[in-house]
Design a protein that fits this description.
Helix content is about 60%, strand content about 0%. By secondary structure, the chain is mainly alpha-helical. It has a single domain, classed as Cytochrome c-like domain (Cytochrome Bc1 Complex, Chain D, domain 2). The radius of gyration is 18 Å and the shape is globular.
């Protein structure tokens, strides 16, 4: 009977995990940034828990698009990596959004 109970718990967990959708799934660009990044890097990219990545920041001046994409994928230091949660297209869309904000209006 223990095996049957154990199997029931495993099946229940599998169904619960399969039924949970990732809050970042299907999102791109600004929407993805606001949902997954803004709580650390600020709504306006000005920083907070994470560094400033907006206009005039090291992210704008010193990092290439590929380097920013790699940071998003791997996550240096205390930043979590998003490489397993986001597609390459989603990561590219966040980089495009960052560059758009960094350039500013005009």
């Amino acid at each position: 009977m223990r095996s049957a109970a154990r199997l029931s718990v495993i099946v229940l967990v599998v169904f619960l995990v399969a039924g949970c959708s990732d809050r970042l799934e299907g999102k791109f660009g600004e929407e993805l940034y606001q949902e997954g990044c803004a709580h650390c890097h600020g709504v306006e990219l000005t920083g907070g828990t994470g560094p400033n990545i907006g206009p005039g920041s090291n992210a704008e001046i010193e990092l290439s698009d590929q380097q920013i994409a790699d940071v998003i994928r791997v996550g240096p230091g205390s930043m979590p990596g998003f490489g397993r949660r986001l597609t390459d297209a989603q990561i590219d869309s966040v980089v495009e959004y960052l560059r758009l904000v960094q350039r500013g209006p005009g």
